[in-house]
Amino acid sequence: MLASIKLITIEYTETFALANGIALGGASFGMMVLPPLTEILVETYGWHSAFLLLGALDLHVIVAGAMIRISEHYDEEEISLLNENKHRHSISNTFLKSLDLNVFRTQPMIIFYDVLITLFSIVFSVWTVYLIPNAEIRGISGQDASLLSTVAGFTNFFGRVASGPIVDIGWVDSRDLFVGVSIINTVIFVADPVFDTYTLMCINAAIAGLSMGAGNNLWTVMVKQFVDECGVSSSFVGTLGWATLFSGVGNIISPLIAGKYLKNARYLLELNCVTSPFLMYTL
Questions:
Q1: How far apart are CA 193 and CA 195, in angstroms?
Q2: pLDDT tens, 92-107?
Q3: pLDDT-flagged residues of the chain (< 50)
Q4: Helices (H) and strands (E) in the chain — how many of each?
Q5: Integer Cα distance of 229 and 90 in angstroms
Q6: Are the CB atoms for 161 and 25 separated by under 8 Å?
């Protein structure tokens, strides 16, 4: 993820938000396809074989990664310098440098961004885990419930892509737009009990997917905007790396929360979504 986003910052300086949204849109297609596919594989082959097949599918990431090449706009001198630096530094020195711990000393405000990103990751992951079981608890079949994720994935992709031009053109600041989608999330989750039919659940999933998709794109854009405004663009990869780490912490915590408190997951989502705009306005 970090490598691909770094390449996007090089290639798309003027339309980073749009390019980043499109690049991250692959996750949205995963939301559309994988839940129904997994349901079919489990019913047909059982859990063990289903995981083997999904693992084989995941190996295609290696092929996609192998296709990434240095852009043609690098001249031979720049490529030579990159290769020289690669051989000059040891692995340990390169690793320590890439951690970029100085960013917390020089720009302590990034800690608030990292906390915000952790909260958003909890919201997104709990919602993802909660979406299908919530429908099944209400009497929806497993196959139909899994299609809610397909609906959410479609609008999630649209949210990721549509939020890009809005920010790139300058209509709305990325932070203000993030606050807006967080408020939409809050309203949708508070109204969850009202969406008690399958059609209404699809509408709920569509709106939540749209706002979640925009939020997933925007937190990366916010980090880039922050380092650009602070005049430390060279530390973008390190700063984004820490933000991604905090996002991963949220992703680890959230399924445990959703599994233990499934019936109360909606209230946890409300709490985090209300906290996110508050932190954003504080920033």
A1: 5
A2: 555 555 566 677 777 7
A3: 77-79, 81
A4: 13, 0
A5: 32
A6: yes
